[in-house]
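call fold(seq) -> tokens
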Amino acid sequence: MIAASTSHVSHRACQAPLVIALHCSGGSGRQWRSLAERLDDSYRLIAPDLIGAPGGGTWTGAGAFHLTDEAAGILEMIDHHDGPVHLVGHSYGGGLALHIAAVRPDRLASLSLYEPSAFHLLRELDCEGHEALGEVLAIAGTVHDGLINGSYLTATAQVGPASSPR
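ret:
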């Protein structure tokens, strides 16, 4: 079932190749307005608001959240389109696009990723990769604790630019 969300859609022919653009966390489908303006009439763009975005709804909290939950509506869009599908993702949307590509590789004409969030791949690297993953997990833990405790400003201050080791 396609998730009830706001989609930023170009009004081009439904037979045209489909471009699905997935935004970063903290963003929305509006992130892709410039792409929509640059695509010619031979492509159709759908840029859905993902869960947590203004038009994407909120997570129900029924169990742990997984990329499969976010991907379900996107996979349905892909399955209902007869022609080629081009998948584009930025940051969180890039990580989601990787997940979708692994599930439907035969349905994608192309995959374009910008700064994909795929931190789990750091496990496959050497010591530097493991150290980087440790940093990511520490930041995620701080943010998680802040969300759970309602200490939003404290959590974001601890992971902001001033705390960056660089």
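Residues 1-5, 162-166 have pLDDT under 50 and may be disordered.
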